[in-house]
Fold each of these.
Amino acid sequence: MDSAKLEFAYRYPFSAKAREVLEADGSTAVEGRYIEFGRERVDADIRRESRYYDIDMENIKLGEIKSYAYARMIVSAINNPIIIDRFCRGEAERARGAISNESNSNIIRLWRELGVRVDANADREFAIDFTDYLKSMPRGEEYRLVNSRLRAGTVILSRGEMESLLVESIYKRLRGGLPIPTKELPVEVVAASKGMGFDVHVRLRVGKSTKSMEWIESLLKNPIPDVRHRTVNLILAPYLTNVRGLEVEEAYRIIRDYVEECKKLNPDTKVNDAYIKYQCRYAKEHKMRPLSLSNAKTLLSGLVELE
């Protein structure tokens, strides 16, 4: 087997090269051990323990590629939006470990697989069309166009910025390809998945001082499947307007984006734009403070475990 192709496929098991490797392997029968390997991979992704490791043995690389393929089938069979989202995020973060030491040519190759044209220069800077940038842009003030360098309709990014953008694009690509329809899944995988259980609670670690509000920043980075109205009006709106001191429009935008991420896990929410704007304005005018950590634990019980 072409060692360069296998290496690229191992690093990025969602790539076209990985599919070529699996086809060349010629194995079509469902392998029970890989159902278990796939389950372990999903579990590692959910626990945020998935890591990329440099390895030399070709049989292990092939096994890792297969475990990814089975993991995709398992999360599709379970069809839990939280599990699917955690799996995709975990795999994208695993790819970050490979990307960090990747050549510019392979970075561009990855972007090409995502349907995006990217150019690199000798200064380790990258140029991407601003419309493609907007589609892939991670959350965060530093990634907004107003804070970016623009040149002739392109966004100029440092190596680090490009890596973060690529990871986010990989996540979105993986998320858009799942779940695989049940009729396309092997019956053995569907049957095995029925007995699988995963701990999918959001766990947020907070500082030693319960007065710290870092847990709210962590909450904003971790979508939850049930966006309760009180999460917006008792925690997020008061925090953004009166602790971080943001204007109403900026606080509204951050909460709106957060709610959109939450809707990927569960689209059934009645929290709308008008409600968010009203709560941000109300919190600002009345100088509201966010809910205490102890009360937040009760409010978010069953959704988030604040450790």
Amino acid sequence: MHLAELTSKIIAEIELVSQSHVHVGEHEPGSARLEVMRLYDGSFIVPSSTWKGCFRSLAEKLAPSLLLDDLERLAVEAYGANGYVPKLGDERFRNYLEEMRDVLMGREKPTKIVKHGREELTLLLRDMGYEEIERGGGAVEKSLTDMALDYLALHCPIGRLFGNHVIASKLRFHHTIVGKEARTVEARPGVGIDRATGSVKENILFDVEALPVGSSFKLRFVADNLEPGASDSRLLAGVLDWVQIVGLQIGGRKSVGLGLVKPSESIFNLVQPKKDQGKKALANPIKHGEKLKLAEIISYLKKKE
């Protein structure tokens, strides 16, 4: 979904400096050397998927602590790595299913969780592929749980930020190229661990290539239509606040302390076409957008306009 008119765009550039060694790589099975990911010219790369995965993992941990309405709270509680799971033993979820049934059947009852009336809800669900629900009756009953879970997915703050099976991501991360000036890698020894006993496995010794402490990484991402004070905006603000204070762990071998990076400098170019910058700001947001620091963008995302 997300075919709504563009109301705001944030272009972020955050300079991160490693506080520990960093290993971002693809591992060949059985290899005795875990190499960092390189481009054809020898430059190192941190792929966009690495940044997105780190941000999403933090968001998943922080989301339960957000102030959310009943629908968003249910969505976060039903959220899982492979989709949304019905909590059929939960009285709130049973009440939610009953509300969905009442709205779709046209029964005029007050709702505490479902946010849309029958016409709007039917249109939303039809856009998700539930065209048969207009027949009502058995068609509604057959797909009720699936429709309820997809409606939750639409209102999940984690899904609205990072995307899920019904809605597109509002965040787009870029690859980070670590240039020729930082081609030095250091080899760190590692040993295999027997998970059952917690002891060292015999005959498993390997080297881990890692970028040294003090390496610099430029993280860039674009965020569209983040409304100040909305749950997804506050969630991103929480993630950025965590990164500002604690830092971010990227790449592999995090369990042994690798991958910690912290911000040194940052700039966020904010464009709001309908307010003051107009269309020319969209054409060149770096030049015409409002420039905010990390603390300022966190404050902007948290506030209600």
